Amino acid sequence: MLLSSLFIIFIVAVSTHATFICPRPNGFFSDASSSKKFYHCFNSISYHKSCPSGLSWSQTQQRCVFISSPIEPVKPVEEILNGCSKGNPCENGGSCEPSGNDDLFCLCTENYYGSRCEHVGEGADLSVLESIISGNNNNYEHVVENVLSRNNWTDILAVVDVTGSMQPCAAAVYKWMKLSQDKTKNIRYYVFFNDGDDKLNSAKKIGSTGGIYSMAANNLNKVLATMQSAMKNGNGGDIPENDIEAILHGIEMCPTCTDIIHIADNKATPRDLNLLNRVTKPIKVLTCQVDVADVNPQLLNVADKTNGSLHTLDEDVFNLSAIPVGEKITIGRRTYRRTSSGFVVV
Asked: Residues in domain Chitin-binding type-2 (predicted)?
């Protein structure tokens, strides 16, 4: 591999930098005074960072890189990082929300839905979600509340599957956050994903399936609107989902979040497990819709291979990586054995 093509992701935080005004709440921005430094903004607070020795900041690649040729000209950061800066593509009065590197999603006005608010109507039926949030329906799976109450997690990034029948679990995340907001403010960032909005199954590509909506947790009304948009715009399709793509997006958007929880559909296997080696933080997998079914062994593998943990309605399973090949573990009523490629049901 040529030296010029080699890149290093490692970055070093130096200090907060009060004189730099973040162009948008979250993102990475060039330091016009030095090619060796850059700014990392999180929740509108800027952190001045330096690249490791011998590397320079590349605004286009969003990384510190080896550069063997003259440094590329710096483009306006808004043009690169904020998809909404080029204009509002949302139709029918929808508002544009930036989401990641040069990406966006739309929050639609009443009676419109779709990735660009292009459809008239209500989209997916959200009556279950609304009944749980309003308190009129308490007859749902309480795995989210139970797990979050049992564990003293802080600085949480919540990555939530909002496809189809996952409405109760998604509502429970919001409900728990609303009840505990004044005391703990534990959840800092939300990612909701629906596996590609209304894409045809044949158009879903690993790593870029889409249907990902993310929002800082400091405005719960906006969080709820974002969750509802992700639900309305989902359109069924095949069963496998883009869990790992959504997790990677969340880590990019909230790199300082320390506890990554994944509210997962136990009845669906992630389509993008081959991206799991890119996940650099432990994932705490909360399994929804287990019922009488077994815990999906692939979700057990997500927790295991990221040095994370698995959580059900009644159990917290830690230290999965300490289980030797050939040994067994019982979760609920089922036993699983570790093989060289992961856990399987016995």
From this structure: 19-64
Residue 53 is part of a domain; what is its CATH number? 2.170.140
* Nearest-angstrom CA–CA distance, 190 and 334: 31
> CA–CA separation, 28 vs 116, rounded Å?
26
pTM attached to this predicted model: 0.73
Residues 101 and 189 in one domain: no
CATH code of the domain containing 214: 3.40.50
| In contact, 23 and 84? CB cutoff 8 Å | no
| CA dihedral over 67, 68, 74, 79, signed as positive or negative | negative
What are the residues whose beta carbons fall under 8 Å from the beta carbon of 221, sequence distance 6 or more?
none
pLDDT digits (tens, 9 = 90+) for 150-185: 998 988 999 999 887 788 888 887 777 776 554 445
Same domain for 280 and 177: yes
Element containing residue 226 per DSSP (H, E):
helix 220-233
- Which stretches in the chain have pLDDT values below 50? 1-18, 68-80, 182-184
Helix (H) or strand (E) holding 49: strand 45-50
CA–CA distances in Å: residue 246 to residues 40, 112, 229, 255: 21, 25, 16, 14
Residues 69 and 103 both lie in one domain? no
The residue range of the domain holding 27 is 3-81
